[in-house]
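Field guide to reading this record: the first block holds the primary sequence, the second block holds the structure written as C-alpha cells, and the final block holds curator observations. Each block starts with its own label. This record concerns tRNA-dihydrouridine(16) synthase, catalogued under organism Cobetia amphilecti.

BLOCK 1 — SEQUENCE
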Amino acid sequence: MTPSLTPQALARAGRIGIAPMEGVIDDITRECLTGLGGYDWCVTEFVRVTHVKLPPRVFKRICPELLDASPTQTARTRHETPVALQLLGADPEALGINARVAARLGAPSVDINFGCPAKTVNRHDGGAALLRSPERVFRAVEGVRKALEGTGVPVTAKIRLGFNDRRLALACAQAAEAGGATQLVVHGRTKQEGYRPPAHWEWIGKITSELSIPVVANGDIWDMHCYWRARSLSGCRDVMLGRAALADPFLAARIKHWQATGELLPETDWTQRAQVLLSHAERCAHLPDKVMVPLLKQWMNMMRQSGNAEAESRFQAIKRHKGRAEFFTGLVAGTALELAPSLLTSVTRMPEPAQVPESPQTSEADAATTPA
Ligand SMILES: Cc1cc2nc3c(=O)[nH]c(=O)nc-3n(C[C@H](O)[C@H](O)[C@H](O)COP(=O)(O)O)c2cc1C
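BLOCK 2 — STRUCTURE
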C-alpha cells in the first residue's frame, strides 16, 4: 500500500521520465538507470516510419523489452519501469498502422517525436520539421489516436518550442492535445537552438497554463536546483531527464528522496559514478573494445560536460586509451573499486549476428554534438 503523503510531500511530488536518446540510451542503459531508482517511465529511441508497415523485428530491436511483454504485461525494464515506444514520421496513416503494431507487441504507450533536429530527418519531413504546421501535428497525433482506438494504449507527443522560432509553440501543443495526446513533453528550445543553453522553462509554462493534459518539462535539468527552477517556471509537476540521466545517474533517486522527505542528499561522488560506469560496462562486456570503450567514453563525456570536475580530469587522463584494460584501470585509479575479469580481457570480434545491434537509423546524436 502507498503510504499517505504529507501535504508538503504532495506538493513536491512529481514523475520523472528518462528521455529518448538515439544512439545513447538503449535497453541496456535503461536497465542500468532504472535499477538505480527514481524513474517512472522511459521512452525508446525513435522508430523511423515512412510509408510501410514495419516488421515486428524493427520494434523489438529498438525496444527489446517487448520480447518479455505478454497479453497482461506491457514492455517494462527488468525493474518494472514502463518503456514507451517512440515513432518518428509525418504520414498519419503510416504512423497509425505502425502504432497498432507497437501496441499489439506490448508497448504501454506510443510517443510521437516532433523534436528531432537532424537534417536528414527534417529533409524527409519528420521530427521538428512538423512544428512548422500545427495542422500536421494534429493530423499525425490524430492518426495514431484513431489507430489505437480499442487497444487501451494511449498516444503521447514530444515537441520542441518550434522550428526556427517560438511563434507556433502554443498552437503545436494545442494541436497535439486536440489530436488526442494524453501527455505532452516539451523540450524548451526550438530546433534552431539545437542543444544550446538555456532551455526556456518559462515558455513551457505558457503551454502548461493553456492545456488540460499533463505537460512534462524537459531540457537542461542537470541538478536539484535546476529541477526545482524548471518546475517552478514551467508549472509542470513532471519532468524528463536526458543528458543528466547519464551525467548524474543518481539524480532521479535524489529528487525522489527529496520529494518524499524534504531532505537534500549530497551530490553523487566520483566513486558512485564510476561504479555505474563499471556495471554498465559489465553488461556490454561481450562487445569488442572498439565498440564498448567509445560507449563508455561517451557516457563519461556527459558526466564531464555537466561540470563534474573529477569526471573532467579522469576523462582527460584516459580519453586516448583504446583497450579496455588500460581504460578501466585508469577509470578506477585511486578508488577502492575492483575490476571484473571481463573488463580486463580484450574482446576483438563482434558477437554472433543475433546480438549485433543494427547501425543507428539516422543521427540525432550527431545533431546533438554539432548543434544545427
Ligand atoms: C544524443 C541525443 C539523442 C536524442 N535522441 C532523441 C530521440 O530519439 N527522440 C527524441 O524525442 N528526442 C531525442 N533527443 C532529445 C532528448 O530527448 C531531450 O529532449 C534533449 O536532450 C533535452 O533534454 P536534456 O537537456 O535533459 O538532455 C536526443 C538528444 C540527444 C542529446
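BLOCK 3 — OBSERVATIONS
The first helix runs from residue 7 to 12.
The two ends are 48 Å apart (CA to CA).
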